Known about the structure:
The protein contains 3 helices and 8 strands.
Amino acid sequence: MRFPRTDARLETLAMLAVEGLRKADDELSSPPISAAELEKRVERMKTAAFAIQQWKEQGAELHHDMKDARTAVADGLTRVIRYSEVVFRDEPIKLGILGWGPVREKTPIKPPNEVRDIRIKKEGDTWIELAWKAPKGGGKVATYTIQQRKEGAAPWDDVHTTMDKQGRVEGRPRGVQLEFRVVAINRAGTGSPSGVVTAVL
Length: 201
């Protein structure tokens, strides 16, 4: 769950936590702040909010008080939540009694899928410009790498890296038939190679 960003949601969650602390006082026996203290902080926050509405001409001073009250509630609520997450680490569903929920596991990053539709865009005496389409599906692409080899030979050599869906390879030998392909890369790894295009520069 995300920590509340608005005063109304902060107040609601804090009061749910107060009620939960009281209901589960046998399990949450040593919270960093008591239910009564957290409730007291919420009341101060509500009082400050009401004062802002009633006396806007004194806004600067009241806003400062509201900021202090909000910070105190957020600090107390955060400490209660962190404490409860430790107590209920083996039964995170119980965090619901505080109006909170288990920490979401991060979705693992996947490598990109295969680069599509590689083609020769332009070529000169010692250079070639390739273009391609982004993979469909898989993880988000960080960079593309153009790989080259003499036709039928191995291994492939990395010759150009770019963040765009096109790239130019320069300084190639003339009169030699070369194969080119592109791979997409991110933190999770390298995707399957694209199809191959062949050119004699």
